[in-house]
Design brief:
The protein is an alpha/beta fold. It is about 35% helix and about 20% strand. The chain has helices spanning about 50, 60, 85-95, 105-115, 115-125, 125-140, 145-160, 175-180, 180-190, 210-225, and strands at about 15-20, 35-40, 40-45, 70, 75-80, 165-170, 195-200, 225-235, 245-255. The chain has a four-stranded mixed sheet with strand order 7-6-9-8, covered by helices on one side. The N and C termini lie far apart (about 85 Å). Pfam families: BTB_2 (PF02214), KCTD_C (PF25611).
């Protein structure tokens, strides 16, 4: 009598989201378990204990027992982040060595992985302290800074349809008392045929250095890839000489 043979069915195809306990290596996961990583296409080998060194971090959460891990075709745990800046983070987790190169980029990745002790150490470095602490606190005192920066770029692009260069004027209104005379400034520029696109910054309550604000504007516009330079344009005294408005010109070069 013919007897049917048992047919072994192929194992289920590995999905891109696999619960962490279903590691490509059989056996119970421990802190000493060796883990192979594919970070942005570059391979790393470490232990589970290293990755979980700081409980509560996003990196530790990625490799918790309840997490779902992405796997590559070879069964490595996959993280879709820049590998160049993951390496110094891994070295810090292994030895406590603080990175000395690519500080802004490593700082960004440390924030992503939520490794708070490393974030704090990097924030004390001059490269991060100046940008993330000092400069950020300065700009927080300028109401609408980000919105006005975007407006400057939009106006400059709108004027560049048939021109190699386009200019935007920035008028600094330092106090609420000055703000009441802002329309007078616009009328003056129009009467003298100097009227271009004008963006108003202010008023603000803090005492700010105008040159520092202009430096921040130029730096942030250049960071977006634009060719721009700024210069002092003119000082306008109100008709009764109560206030003086400082106006600056930002010139964009397109080709």
């Amino acid at each position: 009598m013919w007897q049917g043979c048992a047919v072994e069915r192929p194992a289920g195809r590995m999905t891109s989201q696999t619960p962490l306990p279903q590691s490509p290596r059989p056996g119970r996961l421990t802190m000493s378990t060796v883990v192979e990583l594919n970070v942005g296409g570059e391979f790393h080998t470490t232990t589970l204990g290293t990755l979980r060194k700081f409980p509560g971090s996003k990196l530790a959460e990625m490799f918790s027992s309840s997490a779902k891990a992405s796997m590559d075709a070879e069964g490595r745990f996959f993280i879709d982040r820049p590998s160049t800046y993951f390496r110094p983070i891994l070295d810090y987790l292994r030895t406590g060595q603080v990175p000395t190169q690519h500080i802004p980029e490593v700082y960004r990745e440390a924030q992503f992985y939520e490794i708070k002790p490393l974030v704090k150490l990097l924030e004390d470095m001059p490269q991060i302290f100046g940008e993330q602490v000092s400069r950020k606190q300065f700009l927080l005192q300028v109401p609408g800074y980000g919105e006005n920066l975007e407006l400057m770029v939009r106006l400059a692009r709108a004027e560049a349809i048939t021109a190699r260069k386009s200019s935007v004027l920035v008028c600094l209104v330092e106090t609420e008392e000055q703000d009441a005379y802002y329309s007078e400034v616009l009328c003056f520029l129009q009467d003298k045929k100097m009227f271009k696109s004008v963006v108003k910054f202010g008023p603000w309550k803090a005492v700010l250095d105008n040159s520092d604000l202009m430096h921040c504007l130029e730096m942030d516009i250049k960071a977006q890839g634009y060719k721009v330079f700024s210069k002092f344009y003119l000082t306008y005294p109100t008709k009764r000489n109560e206030f003086h408005f400082n106006i600056y010109s930002f010139t964009f070069t397109w080709w």
